[in-house]
């Protein structure tokens, strides 16, 4: 998944245009030192990435500078950026909006992104994309990347993967790591460009070398799956670790899985549980499901069925169909002393509706045996077949078994009958 990012990572080139007064005062310089972007012209060496900005100090310095020069677009942009990084988007918008109108590419980019996602302001994708285009045309790399995202997802402009890749490339060639990662993903997925995993890996590597956590994770995935040749779990583990060290949720989950199973690193069940927990706290559904499984089995943690159900539920609510399957099974089997056939049906149905082959098979079992539903062997057979088509072997086995049973000759009721209660059993 590509995430819209309004704050640039570390930079080496500054082709974006900034706005500064003819004679900068000491207060102006103090604000710039605490809030300028490294992608603004003249601030490649002194500009700060948002992740290391002292927002309280930046707001104080820029507020003082703006009081001295209330018309400065640069100061408004920097103060707005500081508020944005601090999490106060509504306050940020009061400064970024007029600065963007005055021509600040930094403000046009930050406020354009805010308009597109509706962050602190009423959503207006069209105007947001227009502001990004102004800054992108001026050569501001973060705007070029964000405009690429707009074309990528059709936000404020018509979806156009080729145009997205063109803007990503412009920003990537200026050295913007996030754009390098996005361009790598376009090659990896064959969107707007011919699918080329070698090119994807090359762009991921360039971004990874600059510390981009998503590129590190994506490159790790190529090494894990052997997409570039033989799987290299050790190299994948190194990349996942680098991204996990930056608290990137997907990498925390991937590294946890490696530690759980001893892929490319020494097995460490407690370490795996800790990594899953960190990722789960960020809302990573797959990590929530993995952590639930550990609690269900008592692996690396003290067995706790209540926590297992809690994490499975969180993951299922986020769309993790495997978690929905497992939660359905817990309720079906009464794990931890809690058996609830209605909930078993609900979560199993949820997984089946989303095409999970195990969910389809398990739902077939419920229909075949009349568990929380009226017994319906025809429906069960259909579900087993759907599971089999998706390659799930137990689904195929159940389909063949039930099909044979339904086609087998049956004795006529006049020869032998059974009480209804016995049929039900």
UniProtKB/TrEMBL annotation:
<dbReference type="Pfam" id="PF14559">
    <property type="entry name" value="TPR_19"/>
</dbReference>
<dbReference type="InterPro" id="IPR050767">
    <property type="entry name" value="Sel1_AlgK"/>
</dbReference>
<keyword id="KW-0732">Signal</keyword>
<dbReference type="Pfam" id="PF08238">
    <property type="entry name" value="Sel1"/>
</dbReference>
<dbReference type="InterPro" id="IPR006597">
    <property type="entry name" value="Sel1-like"/>
</dbReference>
<feature type="signal peptide">
    <location>
        <begin position="1"/>
        <end position="24"/>
    </location>
</feature>
<protein>
    <recommendedName>
        <fullName>Sel1 repeat family protein</fullName>
    </recommendedName>
</protein>
<dbReference type="InterPro" id="IPR011990">
    <property type="entry name" value="TPR-like_helical_dom_sf"/>
</dbReference>
């Amino acid at each position: 998944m590509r995430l819209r990012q309004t704050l640039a990572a570390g930079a080496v080139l500054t082709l974006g245009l900034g706005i500064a007064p003819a004679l900068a005062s000491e207060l102006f310089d103090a604000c710039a030192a605490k809030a300028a972007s490294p992608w603004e012209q003249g601030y490649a060496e002194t500009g700060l990435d948002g992740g290391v900005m002292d927002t309280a100090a930046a707001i104080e310095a820029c507020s003082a500078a703006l009081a001295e020069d209330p018309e400065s677009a640069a100061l408004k942009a920097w103060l707005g950026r500081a508020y944005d990084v601090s999490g106060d988007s509504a306050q940020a918008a009061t400064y970024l909006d007029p600065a963007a109108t005055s021509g600040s590419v930094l403000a046009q980019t930050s406020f354009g992104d805010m308009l597109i996602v509706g962050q602190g302001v009423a959503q207006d994708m069209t105007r947001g994309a227009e502001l990004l285009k102004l800054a992108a045309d001026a050569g501001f790399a973060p705007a070029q990347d964000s405009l690429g995202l707009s074309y990528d997802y059709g936000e404020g402009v018509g979806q156009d993967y080729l145009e997205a890749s063109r803007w990503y490339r412009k920003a990537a060639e200026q050295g913007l790591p996030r754009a390098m990662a996005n361009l790598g993903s376009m090659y990896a997925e064959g969107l707007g460009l011919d699918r080329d995993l070698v090119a994807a890996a090359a762009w991921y590597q360039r971004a990874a070398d600059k510390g981009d956590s998503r590129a590190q994770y994506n490159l790790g995935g190529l090494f894990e799956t052997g997409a570039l040749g033989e799987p290299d779990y050790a190299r994948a583990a190194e990349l996942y670790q680098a991204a996990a060290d930056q608290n990137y949720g997907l990498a925390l989950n991937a590294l946890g899985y490696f530690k759980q199973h001893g892929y490319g690193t020494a097995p460490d069940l407690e370490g795996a549980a800790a990594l899953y927990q960190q990722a789960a706290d960020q809302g990573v559904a797959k990590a929530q499901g993995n952590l639930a499984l550990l609690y269900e089995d008592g692996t690396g943690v003290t067995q706790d069925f209540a926590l297992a159900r809690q994490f499975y539920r969180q993951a299922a609510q986020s769309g993790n169909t495997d978690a929905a399957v497992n939660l359905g099974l817990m309720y079906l089997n009464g794990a931890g002393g809690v058996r609830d056939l209605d909930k078993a049906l609900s979560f199993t149905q949820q997984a089946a509706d989303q095409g999970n082959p195990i969910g389809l098979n398990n739902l077939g079992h419920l229909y075949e045996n009349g568990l929380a539903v009226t017994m319906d062997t025809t429906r069960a057979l259909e579900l087993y077949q759907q599971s089999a088509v998706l390659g799930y072997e137990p689904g195929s086995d159940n389909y063949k078994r039930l099909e044979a049973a339904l086609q087998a000759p049956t004795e006529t009721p006049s020869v032998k009958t059974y009480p209804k209660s016995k049929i039900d059993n």
